[in-house]
């Protein structure tokens, strides 16, 4: 399994994470490891995606398979990606910032296809997770260079410290059904930090941290990334609320012909 290209100082990472609600490691993996992950992703797209349920694979245009934009639960369908989300360097980082055992939850794919990749609305992951307490983190690995043109991630520093969630409402963006409805305050603007970076750049954020990404305005470059979700061992899922929300979302997306 991959080893880190940089020395990982877990105590320092935890201090930064507690202060800001996120942390960056540039790069986490070297070029050879990133080439391997990208090759495995191509294999996965060719061999595994055709067997996945349509509720776990989203396209910008569902009639055009080249517009693949998002996948869920990759670690469930494939041994390579199961091993990747369990790999020590990421798993240990998740446990360090959670301050407790990190339970593997979901390995996701986030793409913004060239020219048509939509913006990621400002949101807090915890709003989607239905957890008590809200103890969860997401890691985010750039599979290619990311910048302001193709839609790099932005975090709002310190936003994980507020009590409760910001108000969310339907966003109409497939894969990010809920966005913060009062986003754009002076505090949001003053505390926003953008994360352009090279292939292998790794970010990790708290489930309460407000984050977003722009649309892909490049006509030629995609913006591909993997998301690694871990829940804290103490977090309990409100299964009923989560299942009801998911069922309604799937029904709405089918009715709108989006999946
Ligand atoms: O890749 C993106 O644009 C969004 C990723 C995200 O929201 C997340 O990892 O929680």
Q: Helix and strand layout, with pairings?
A:
Blueprint: H1 10-20, E1 22-25, H2 31-47, E2 57-59, E3 68-71, H3 74-77, H4 79-86, H5 88-98, E4 102-111, E5 120-123, H6 125-129, E6 131-132, E7 136-142, E8 153-156, E9 168-173, E10 176-180, H7 186-191, E11 192-195, E12 202-206, E13 211-213, E14 224-232, E15 236-237, H8 239-255
Antiparallel strand pairs: 1-12, 2-3, 3-4, 4-14, 5-13, 6-15, 7-12, 7-14, 8-11, 8-13, 9-10
What would you note in describing this structure?
This protein is α+β, with helices and mostly antiparallel strands and 259 residues long. It is 31% helix and 28% strand. Strands 1-12-7-14-4-3-2 form a seven-stranded antiparallel beta sheet. Helix 1 (10-20) packs across helix 5 (88-98). The longest helix is centred in the first third of the chain and has 17 residues, at 31-47. Bound molecules: 2-oxoglutaric acid. 2-oxoglutaric acid binds at residues 110, 120, 125, 138, 140, 211, 213, 225, 227.
């Amino acid at each position: 399994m991959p080893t880190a290209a940089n020395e990982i100082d877990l105590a320092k990472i935890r201090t930064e994470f507690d202060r800001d609600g996120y942390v960056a490691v540039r790069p986490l993996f070297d070029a050879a490891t990133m080439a391997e992950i990208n090759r495995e992703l191509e294999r996965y797209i060719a061999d595994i995606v055709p067997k996945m349920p349509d509720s776990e694979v989203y396209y910008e245009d569902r009639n055009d398979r080249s517009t693949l934009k998002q996948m869920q639960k990759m670690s469930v369908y494939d041994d390579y990606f199961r091993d990747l989300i369990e790999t020590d360097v990421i798993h240990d980082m998740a446990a360090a910032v959670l301050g407790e055992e990190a339970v593997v939850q979901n390995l996701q794919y986030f793409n913004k296809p060239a020219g048509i990749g939509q913006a990621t609305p400002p949101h807090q992951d915890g709003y989607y997770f239905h957890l008590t307490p809200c103890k969860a983190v997401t890691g985010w690995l750039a599979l290619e260079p990311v910048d302001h043109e193709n839609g790099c991630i932005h975090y709002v520093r310190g936003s994980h410290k507020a009590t409760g969630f910001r108000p969310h409402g339907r966003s109409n963006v497939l894969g990010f059904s809920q966005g913060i409805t009062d986003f754009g305050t002076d505090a949001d603007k003053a505390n926003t930090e953008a994360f352009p970076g090279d292939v292998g750049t790794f970010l990790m954020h708290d489930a309460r941290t407000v984050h977003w990404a722009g649309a892909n305005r490049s006509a030629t470059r995609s913006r591909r990334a993997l998301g690694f979700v871990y829940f804290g061992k103490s977090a309990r899922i409100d299964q009923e609320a989560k299942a009801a929300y998911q069922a309604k979302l799937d029904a709405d997306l089918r009715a709108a012909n989006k999946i």
